[in-house]
């Protein structure tokens, strides 16, 4: 069954809804964003998260040393890198990693094969803006399904199609479970249910 990551969480109540309804991963954004949380805030939020739920921290072009510091403070279980981080950068991170790749005009921006030890996340050209990428254009055979995560414009209306097309390890949603820029508990619940049915 496909796992679900609810990303960009800032409030205890939203985290509780995500966990109660079956999300396996919750995401804290540490990069500049309207969903950004400070490490100290994430540490408080993480305090009530059960150990079987993976806490993921999202970073963009941060140094491995700073990532390791924040990951230890919170503490995180997985580090998600959304910038131009190299395989060497990820090798210096003390935690399991997710490497995000933007898909633009049907092409993956980067070499997935350079990151054999990371989960691979395919995202839209601009993360967090609720837009999908061209699913049809991406050559699926070369993608490691057992390590593949799909993001970018997912919501309750299209997550089934995404799972059918890619058969990924996990799906990752942020704006697709928001109303007016704020996490919507009903949308979180319905998204998780739909993903689990797919």
TrEMBL record:
Residues 4-194 form the N-(5'phosphoribosyl) anthranilate isomerase (PRAI) domain. Coiled coil: none annotated. Its EC number is 5.3.1.24. InterPro entries: Aldolase_TIM (IPR013785), PRAI_dom (IPR001240), RibuloseP-bd_barrel (IPR011060), TrpF_fam (IPR044643). One of its GO terms (biological process) is L-tryptophan biosynthetic process. This is N-(5'-phosphoribosyl)anthranilate isomerase. It comes from the Bacteria. It is an enzyme of class 5 (isomerase). Keywords: Amino-acid biosynthesis, Aromatic amino acid biosynthesis, Isomerase, Tryptophan biosynthesis. Gene3D superfamilies: Aldolase class I. Pathway: Amino-acid biosynthesis; L-tryptophan biosynthesis; L-tryptophan from chorismate: step 3/5. It catalyses: N-(5-phospho-beta-D-ribosyl)anthranilate = 1-(2-carboxyphenylamino)-1-deoxy-D-ribulose 5-phosphate. GO terms for molecular function: phosphoribosylanthranilate isomerase activity. It comes from Listeria rocourtiae. Belongs to the TrpF family.
